[in-house]
């Protein structure tokens, strides 16, 4: 991961950390939190999502949190920080064999609480919540809308899923969810 200052032209990055997911494992996606103080990186060849303090990135830097057991089959699989940056939502996808020896893809999301682990100096963080999203496709794109407080998930089969809490979300998918069923007027259709 290399961070460049775009305000000045230079041949070198301001900060860099190499082999972020191990030797020979390229970084396939990165995402910043809202204030730019944290960065999450993923690799297709690693089942972890690493969280970095962007102010402390250097050749000798270590991740401030390692979100464990988030396998992916998609090269550009992403993650998303909650609006306040305390949670990280990471999409997963893996292959499993069905009873009739066919292979199928399964996808889900895992939520990691970052603040406690970063304060206690823990390295590996376990998920606080796991949600199975699809039994036929993996989750490849995760976007957490800061104002609506809803999570949009793109799946490998082209479907989009939306996660929200009716008590915490506003507008967006909640508008369709909260509509009442139309009452029958008693007339029959021809």
Order of helices and strands: EEEEEEEEEHEEEEEH
What's the number of helices? 2
Structural class determined from secondary elements: mainly beta
Helical residue percent band: under 10%
Description:
By secondary structure, the chain is mainly β. It is 6% helix and 37% strand. It contains two helices and 14 strands; from the N terminus they run βββββββββαβββββα. It has helices spanning 114-120, 173-177, and strands at residues 2-3, 15-16, 29-32, 38-42, 49-53, 65-67, 79-81, 87-97, 103-113, 124-125, 129-134, 139-145, 150-155, 160-163. The strands form four sheets. Strands 3-4-5-6-10 form a five-stranded mixed β-sheet, covered by helices on one side. The chain has a four-stranded antiparallel β-sheet with strand order 7-8-9-11. The protein has a three-stranded antiparallel β-sheet with strand order 12-13-14, with no helix packed on it. A hairpin with a 4-residue loop joins β12 and β13. The longest helix has 7 residues, at 114-120. The chain is globular, with a radius of gyration of 20 Å. The model has no long low-confidence stretch (mean pLDDT 84).
């Amino acid at each position: 991961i290399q961070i460049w200052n775009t305000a000045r032209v230079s041949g070198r990055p301001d900060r860099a950390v190499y082999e972020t997911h191990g030797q020979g494992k390229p970084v396939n996606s990165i995402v910043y939190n809202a204030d730019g103080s944290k960065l999450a990186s993923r690799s297709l060849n690693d089942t972890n999502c690493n969280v970095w303090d962007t102010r402390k990135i250097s050749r000798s830097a270590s991740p401030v949190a390692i979100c464990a057991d988030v396998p992916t089959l998609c090269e550009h699989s992403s993650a998303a920080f909650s609006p306040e940056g305390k949670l990280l939502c990471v999409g997963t996808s893996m292959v499993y064999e069905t009873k009739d020896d066919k292979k199928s893809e399964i996808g889900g999301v895992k939520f990691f609480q970052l603040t406690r682990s970063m304060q206690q100096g823990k390295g590996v963080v376990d998920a606080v919540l796991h949600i199975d999203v699809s039994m036929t496709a993996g989750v490849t794109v995760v976007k957490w809308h800061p104002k609506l407080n809803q999570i949009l998930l793109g799946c490998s089969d082209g479907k989009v899923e939306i996660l929200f809490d009716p008590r915490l979300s506003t507008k967006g998918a909640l508008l369709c969810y909260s509509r009442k069923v139309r009452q029958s007027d008693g007339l029959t259709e021809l």
